[in-house]
Amino acid sequence: MYEYLKQMLEYIKTYNELPKDSIQFNDICLELYNNSNNLNDYQVQSLDLVLKICNTVYENSSTVLIDDDFYDHLVEIYRKHNGDFRIGAETIDINEMRNVITFIKKPEERDVISYNKYNEDNMMFYRDLSYNSPLDKYDLKKQNYTYNGDISKRKVLDSQLYPNLVGTLDKCKFVLDSQAKEKGVYNEPNVKIFERDFLIKHMKMGIINPHDKYTLIAELKYDGISICAEVQNGVIISANTRGDVKDDLSADLTPIFAGYKFYRMNEDIFNGEKYGVKFEAVMTKYNLMMYNQMKGRSYANGRTAIIGLLSSSDAYKYRDLITLVPLDWSYSDQMTELGDNYELAYILGTRKMQIQLLNDRFRNGQINRFTIMEGDYKSLLFQVKRFVEEAEMMRDFIPYMYDGVVISYDDPSIRKQLGREHSVNKYSIAIKFSALKKSTIFTGYTYTVGQDGSITPMIHYNPVMFFGTIHDKASAHSYDRFMKLGLRKGDVVDVEYTNDVMAYVTKPDNSHNASNNNPLEVFPTYCPSCGNKLVISKSGKQVMCENKDCPERNIRRIDNMFKKLNIKDFSEAYLTRIGRYHLKDLMSLTKDDVSFLGEVNSQKFVDSMRYLQTNPIYDYKIIGSLGFNNVGSEKWKIIFTKYDLHEFVNLMNNNRLPMESLTNLKGLGPETVNTIFNEYEFFKEDIMFIETFKNVKSIKHDIENINIKKIRFTGVRDSELINFVSNMGHDINGTGSVTKDTDILIVPYENYSSSKVSKALSNGNTLIVPIDTFKENLNKYLK
């Protein structure tokens, strides 16, 4: 590692160019990053060379070897060992020649851009996007409010206190008509375009003229949770979510935010009057890291973390990790005569004045960032397009998440003419970003074998960073997609961060990839785990290993079985070392047999196996965990509602036409029955072993004595609760859909909104219950 880096630096200095094999450089960077907590002296010296190489290339060319965020992380790691690290490098003349990282044919024509590096000198809106008010004495004040145990239960408010603050926006994906036409979606009925469906629409309405000049306000569209608060004397006295706008209902967040103080409102200009303020609750990237550490969670982004936080019973403990960005302000009717002219301008004035007032009075660490655009129709289109592009490019460098921009008219008369329809402000529109995308270099494939034998190709590439998380691989999903991608080592690939969770890889059409002379990657013909000949599925989309004893298939199956049976703390690596692939074999192991796991884990393993033979469990659950391909517990429940375990075994063993008997059961298709029939011999020994368990309950025998409830979830999951209630015989499913016969829908908190909630409400007989309430009243809801 060290010698390679040393030679690379010398090569750059000697030949004034990057070596052709510099792909290895990123692999070294990733290795150092992954071992950041345990670097030895040799690795620290290597890290020093990595940073020197990055600085040398960066200072003397337009090439960026690694992502800026990734570089910053490496600097912080190095500073733990050498606090005297300084940015900069000696001056040399690097030829920006063609290589696997990036290349330039002419100064004005760039074929491949490895990473989007923003340059404030070339940006129109850099200051407006990057500026945050300097910290002052108010930002440094610690929130000093205490939890009020008398209002610990979140409840449904009968109506919004300030209905004009709640609602949504029209949304579009394109700024220009030409962008939508280029994508071939201009005439799609669900596609909205800023140019056509906002500006041109208002021209046709006679509200604006294409030759006149207008002012637009552009803001970031924060990706958080919308909160409306009632404030008095600069302190939140109540707060609620946006909730169900149609039915004028919302969830009460007062137990979490009551007492939150805005110190810049220390002069009570409204004589104790109450007023409403709309905020977006966001979580900065630093606070997300802190929250994950404090709670032992692994939330991928701030929005999901806030949803989880607000639905937890101890949310008040972590409220200071939430940043409230001020968006709007609503006065009561009595307040129109109060306040100085500055405040009255909010009622009668421009959006610019509104935002300035909000930032002056209600900011707490982060301002509502905005910019002002002035010009005629063509000029405004150009400015909006640039702002959207620059805001999207800056997402990695702003401390919280946003997923688009909001464009609004500034003129009060235009805003009044367009007004508000069905809780939608028609004088504003949101322009949503596409998925985050970065370019990098494809380095090769590895392959995994699924429980069902399907071979999944994994795409490996030089590491990129999204929101502080390093990504160096992504699933290609299937043989079909592998063939469509047609990758060669050294190809440039685009990595998109979709839904702020998953990396998705595409191959761009550019001159670099067109001239890549490396051979096409070839899909393996033999299983990477067991060596068996692979078979292409009938659809041609998948490649399968049909060996049921394939080690990797078995490991996946046992791992999945442990999860279904709620046996924790045994990773695939542990299961590989144990090397037993049938339940009977696993349960025959003694503590001495698994002593290599260590004292604690070997005892835990033995206790888990003993638990399976003593703790009550339904037949359909334990058989459903064994791993028949695509036959889950719900299908087994259909079978064991008709036959108990002994009857089923007799049916399969005694040649009493088991296929016909099972096919006649409503809810079992021929494919499911064929799978059970074909795989029964493989699982037969385990099933007959389970048949001897005294703790296995028959759902067939109990169903007559239990009023079985059908329970579904939305917005929240609890595997322990699901396992507990399922063992009582109820139909509880964490991912199942809501149907007419669903008895209970469990939600994170009162008045949570989702498509499942809407379906439950339309049913009329489905109870919608917050998870905390359900847990506290199990007997009531399950009787």
Sheet of most strands: 6 strands, mixed
Assess the beta-strand content as a share of residues: 15-25%
Which structural class do you get from the secondary structure elements?
alpha+beta
User: What is the typical, i.e. mean, pLDDT?
Assistant: 80
Label the overall shape.
globular
The gyration radius over C-alpha positions equals 31 Å
**Count of distinct strands:** 27
Q: Count up the helices.
A: 30
Helix content: 25-40%
Report, as a whole number of angstroms, the end-to-end distance. 65 Å
Uncertain runs are: 87-118, 145-158, 244-248, 333-342
Would you kindly provide a brief summary of this structure?
This protein is α+β, with helices and mostly antiparallel strands and 783 residues long.
What can you tell me about this protein's structure?
The chain has 30 helices and 27 strands. The protein is of the alpha+beta class. Strands 4, 5, 11, 12, 13 and 14 form a six-stranded mixed sheet that branches. A five-stranded antiparallel sheet has the order 17-16-15-18-19. A hairpin with a 2-residue loop joins strand 1 (103-106) and strand 2 (109-112). Helix 1 (2-15) runs parallel beside helix 3. The relative contact order is 0.07.
